[in-house]
Amino acid sequence: MVGKTVTLTGNLAAGKAAEMAKPKVIAVYPITPQTDIIEYLSGLVSSGKLEARFITVESEHSALAACAGAAWAGVRTFTATSSQGLLYMGEWVFWSGYGRLPIVMPVVNRCLAPGWSIFVDLQDSMAFRDAGWIQIYTKNNQEVFDTVLQAFKIGESKDISLPVMPCLDGFVLSHTTAKVELPDPEEAYSFVGDYSDPVVEVDVDNPWAYGGLVGPEQFNIARRDLMKAMERAKAKIIKVNKEFEETFGRSYGNGLVEQYGDDDADLTLITMGTMGDEADEAIDQLKQEGYKVNGVRVRTFRPFPVEDIVRIAKKNHKLFILDRAVSFGHEGPLRIEIEAALKRYNLDIPTSGDIVGLGGESVPYKRIMKIAKEALRS
Predict the structure, then answer these.
(1) Which of 164, 166, 199, 299 could be stapled to 155 by a disulfide with Cβ–Cβ 3.0 to 4.6 Å?
(2) Which overall architecture, per CATH, does domain 257-377 show?
(3) pLDDT value at residue 32
(4) Is the dihedral of CA 321, 311, 285, 146 positive or negative?
């Protein structure tokens, strides 16, 4: 089922996946470090290699608004953004999530100003963790390609109908080249499938109008339906990950989390994004030194894999969470979620953590080894 192996940046891997899914509307506005994604797709559309409506707009806000309009019209849509651009989209991020519009939008993670920086942390996408979007965080360029392709299949499922935000670390992945196995384009499209049965579809031959104002009862019904869809999305992500493995030979844990190392350990390192790869190397080195350490990479932050975290935590003795974002006035978002999950199931498992890697700060495996040793001593 594999077409060929090529060397791609993370941005081009995202663009290739979008190309194979054949979106009908691509609305765009450039921002570092995601611009390569839309430049690639622009070239395909202008050369006639991709049949799509490519809309250049005056701002990121307009880009997502245009995608929302296309999604309401019942067609497959795609855009990409980063950092301040994601903030500028803010109103439409919530409209798209709460409106259940299955837009696929890679976010190339970049820290937020001030101070002004173009480097990576996860603060931008984490700021929208409650906007009704599925969020999947990737660790390498292969996973970027695979996740963007899977995102269409997950979000467009009629029982889900949610927008999906595949996240990739700015520059660490977006501008770094690595080998990526690309499937045959027709096999890839066959895996995603046609978007032929949308939940909402505007029919220009049978126009209709409605008022947007709702009362409390209908409002609460809509929000509870969204919550249920997010819960159903867990099973859908697991299923799509399994189907992807059966078709193309690759999987990422169970789709929600990816465990590394022995099942039982004195310390479990919990990470997201590219820190997962560094943690894996740290675990290998620590194991050679006689330490019992394993790792868990949280792949989907929304929906949050509560049951998987609880299942893994029960087998281990101590958890250490590495966050690359801050919930100011509290802790790192990942630590908050994990401690809440343990409390929900009345699990008294020691947890600690640290906020690292902000503003593009390097977090190499040797630093993670040092953190792990200190956590084991405490």
Answers:
(1) 164
(2) 3-Layer(aba) Sandwich (3.40)
(3) 97
(4) negative
Instruction: Please tell me the total number of residues recorded for the chain in this structure.
Output: 378
What pLDDT is attached to residue 1? Answer: 44
**What percent of the chain has pLDDT above 70?**
99
> Which pair of tokens denotes residue 374?
């200190």
Which of 98, 126, 91 has the alpha carbon at shortest distance from 112? 126
The pLDDT of residue 307 is 97
Q: Which residues of 22-61 are buried (b: 16+ CB within 10 A; e: fewer)?
A: bbbbbbbbbbbbbbbbbebbbebeeeeebebebbebeebb
2-248 under CATH 3.40.50.970, yes or no: yes
Buried b (16+ CB within 10 A) or exposed e, 224-262: eebeebbeebbebbbebbeebeeebeeebbbbbbbbbbe
Looking at residue 200, its pLDDT comes to 74
C-alpha–C-alpha distance, residues 159 and 240, integer Å: 14
pLDDT digit string, tens, across residues 212-266: 789 999 999 999 999 999 999 999 999 999 999 999 999 999 999 999 999 889 9
Would you list the domain boundaries of the chain? 2-248, 257-377
Say what the pLDDT of residue 2 is: 53
Neighbours of 176 (CB within 10 A): 15
**Cβ atoms 66, 204 nearer than 8 A:** no
Other beta carbons within 10 Å of 360 = 16
Going from the C-alpha of 286 to that of each of 160, 280, 297, 356, 359, the distances in angstroms are 41, 10, 17, 20, 27
**Residue 255 φ/ψ, nearest 5 degrees:** 105, -30
Which residues are CB-neighbours of 283 under 8 A, at least 6 positions away? Answer: 260, 261, 269, 293, 294, 295
As a whole number of angstroms, the distance between CA 277 and CA 139 comes to 7
Which tens digits make up the pLDDT trace of 141-156?
Answer: 999 999 999 999 999 9
Alpha carbon distance 297, 276 (integer Å): 6
pLDDT per position as a tens digit, 22-39: 999 999 999 999 999 999
| Residues 44, 50 contacting (CB under 8 angstroms) | yes
Collect the ranges in the chain with pLDDT lower than 70: 1-2
